[in-house]
Amino acid sequence: MSQLNPQELEKLLQDLQKEEIEKKTLLEKLGLKGDPLQGLVMATWGFFIGFAAVSLYGPVAKNLKEILGLSGFLLGLLVAAPNLTGSLLRIPFAAWVDKVGGKKPMLVLLWLSVIGMAGLTILLFTFYPKLEPWMYWLILLFGFLSGCGIATFSVGIAQTAYWFPQKDQGKALGIYAGVGNLAPGLFGMVLPFALKALGLPTSYLIWFLFLLIGTIIYMLFARDAYYFQLIEKGYDPETAKKIARALGQELFPTGSLIESLKISAKNFLTWLLVYLYFVSFGGFLALTGWFIVYWVNNYNLPVTEAGILMAVGFSLLASVIRIVGGFLSDILGGELVALGSYAITLLGAFILMGAHTFGISLLGEILMGIGMGTANGAVFKLVPKYVPHATGGAAGWVGGLGAFGGFVVPPILGKFVDIYGKVGYAKGFIVYVVLALVAILISAFLLYLDKKRNSNA
């Protein structure tokens, strides 16, 4: 559809302001599609289908370990592989959203994930169970590609935010993050049952088809906020802003994300928040994959039971309680909530490190889920408070590099297994004891800063 001439456009905007025409009429005249609800639903859908890759290899880790003869370190690296691309790609793709809207970046990430799943499915159908040791590196590569879907988080956050006015963004983003974060737990719980009923290659074929069909659904029905649609139609930025503002859009790209990244990188408080998120959200990603490995190998549980324990006792719990963490931070302050959350995480890790019975280990897992989930809700409440002049850039560093913990930690946990054998599955949690102790010290320091600022105010 061609652009409206300036006179016709101005007349339509005046008529809309006077309520002489409906918003729907203006949208039709301009050829614009979608609304905030559709924007939220499709952004959440894209994040949900992509984020499931966190659980890509956890449920099949034991099978692959036995067939390929993997060390604990290589097994941990494989479980963590999707989280490498899933964390590092968050920052550049979030910046791309400000240029073109969220649909193109989301689709690129999802199609890369589709390619990874396609390669993995073909490999499994062709060679499983007679996999050769050298195929480990192909499986690792497919994990990196599939993990691109995890990076959809930062894209969907921006895509959703542009659709909603400020007063509704908290609710919309809460729904987006809450529903999307359920994916790894749900997939980690369902996949083991599929493996038992259908076998490994067929289970991954179904996952591939789900991802492929889900990506096509997103491609057909996702819509960028009106500003980006107008830019796509050739309107200049100022005219596009004027029209989109009349249609209810309040948030617009400033073009300053790169500068914001630079400014926030010079603030040492940004890096303290990165560390906190590395422990909580990076820990969430790491343990969503690792806890299945832990339950199967440490307690010889069937993978179906291990999947349920991981999902209900940790992943789904942490996802839901993240909302509680944000709510408590509004009331008590993010610093205090973070301090308490990392203390709970420390207790859970300490229990797991010394646990020798199923019940005690389950308690430790639940405590870590509560601690990490609550901390995730608290940390992002602190970002605008401590980096107010470059909040967007700080959020990019925190979200991207914080998630990197999901890639770094599992190989270290696997190394403990290499060194200590089966008992290493428990001993490895000393990693989280140390991480949580440092997080507690940082949270206490931020609480001290907060009290100092309030006393000087």
Structure characterization notes:
There is one protein chain. The chain has 23 helices and no strands. It is an all-alpha fold and 457 residues long. The chain is globular, with a radius of gyration of 23 Å.
Strand content: under 5%
The CATH first-level class of the largest domain comes to: Mainly Alpha
What helical percentage do the residues reach? Answer: over 70%
Q: Say which CATH homologous superfamily of the largest domain is assigned.
A: MFS general substrate transporter like domains
Rounded mean pLDDT is: 92
CATH architecture of the largest domain: Up-down Bundle
Q: Count the DSSP helices.
A: 23
Instruction: Could you tell me the CATH topology label of the largest domain.
Output: Growth Hormone, Chain: A
Kindly state the number of beta strands.
0
- How many domains is the backbone divided into? 2
Order of helices and strands: HHHHHHHHHHHHHHHHHHHHHHH
Principal-axis shape: globular
The Cα radius of gyration reads 23 Å
Low-confidence stretches: none
Structural class: mainly alpha
